[in-house]
Amino acid sequence: MSAPKTFNPLRPTACPGLLRIVRALDGGICRIKLTGGAISARQAVAVAQAAERYAGGVIEATNRANLQIRGIGSEQSALIDSLLAAGLGPRNAASDDVRNLMLSPAAGLDRQMLIDTRPLAERILATLQGDDRFHDLSAKFAVQLDGGEALNMLEHPHDLWLSAFVREGELRLAFGLAGCPTDTPAGSVALEDGHGLVVAVLELFLKLARPEQTRMRHLLAEYALENLLARLAERVPVQAVTDWRRASDSSVLHIGAHPQKKAGVAYVGAVPPLGRLDPAKLQGAAQLAAIYGDGNLRFTPWQSLLLPNIPVEHCAQVIRGLEQLGLLCHADQALTRMIACTGSNGCGKSLAETKGDAVQLAALLQRQGHALSVHLSGCPRSCAAAHTAPATLLAVAPGHYDLYFRDASQAGFGTLHARNLTIEAVAALLDARSRSPLDA
């Protein structure tokens, strides 16, 4: 498939895609959707070369385990053609937007997994791309498939989620609408009915939703969940789930070396500071994957990357190589816990230079001996984080932020704790809070 000759939006949405370059303050943005976050070393090199030749050299790992190239200039067609030639595009132009299926970055590798989700994922993606009806879904409509892995992002809300569990020796898929796998399931289906459930949910959504109802939560505001489940049960055998709920593991498994299900190999996780790579970093990581691993990389919803299938005896060498590239491989480094949007250097809506402020805050917290999870957002849209972070800084002016703490009873960022703080004041407040016995 060659690049289209015009770059008018393929549909009315502000979301970038591979074929839709969206303008920003720092140039065009191209989003490359990766199946399960996976990309070959050869494809990673193609992305790096495209960013260097046709853009400003900024590559971002996104919170949906995709990649973005920023700062694209006038050679949009050449950039798109180079990415399509590397096999990074959709099966057809109309289906690029709907390839929103998130897996564990350790799918097929994780020692705790109940199923390898990749075959079912490939079947779902083939249906999404091959059935013209599903091309009408919003570019933000998203599905999650959880195989029970220890390494899995369970806090991002999805329009439909499916999660593997065992009941009386049978593998089944719990599912829910407009939420996360840690929510109470709406029901479950047999593993072999997983694809049928996805198709039934999407068809029902498209049948019932008005044009302005682009997400499942919009439909649920008008239709009772019980009503939707009854209609799904007419298509797929659905059972209630009363005795199971997905457990959440808070350990940091996307950083450093971790054993895989197969004996003798591990994946090595590294964090590009604030999710940003340059061509040298990406090409260097690709080279390490080709030399020591299986020639593939996987990006994660934590805006990091994994090198899978590294022989255990080579993990230390791979970590040294990644660190020499400027990637972070240790969870006690404060910058590994920082999330920041593009900021005022690249986005006209941002009220602060969030990435620079995040680096400053990380340095202050590192001196205090803390590695705390903090999200810096230049405006209320929260583009950098799909979940609510434990602490969120919302910019109100250059270098000044309102501080929120996550609160399950509060929507959005949580509970407002303090207003108009400098980065130094934020660091001092977080330090005092972490030392308080009330927060221990």
UniProtKB/TrEMBL annotation:
EC class (word): oxidoreductase
Hydrolase listed as a keyword: no
E.C. designation(s): 1.14.13.83
Stored Pfam families: NIR_SIR, NIR_SIR_ferr
Gene3D superfamilies: Sulfite Reductase Hemoprotein, domain 1, Sulfite Reductase Hemoprotein,Domain 2
InterPro entries attached to this UniProt entry: Cbl_synth_CobG-like (IPR012798), NIR_SIR_4Fe-4S (IPR051329), NiRdtase/SiRdtase_haem-b_fer (IPR005117), Nit/Sulf_reduc_fer-like_dom_sf (IPR036136), NO2/SO3_Rdtase_4Fe4S_dom (IPR006067), NO2/SO3_Rdtase_4Fe4S_sf (IPR045854)
Sequence ranges assigned to domain Nitrite/Sulfite reductase ferredoxin-like in this UniProt record: 29-85, 258-324
A molecular function (GO) term: metal ion binding
Domain (Nitrite/sulphite reductase 4Fe-4S) ranges: 96-237
Entry superkingdom: Bacteria
Record's keyword annotation contains Coiled coil: no
Keywords from the UniProt entry: 4Fe-4S, Heme, Iron, Iron-sulfur, Metal-binding, Oxidoreductase
Protein name according to UniProt: Precorrin-3B synthase
Organism name: Pseudomonas putida (Arthrobacter siderocapsulatus)
Taxonomic classification: Bacteria, Pseudomonadati, Pseudomonadota, Gammaproteobacteria, Pseudomonadales
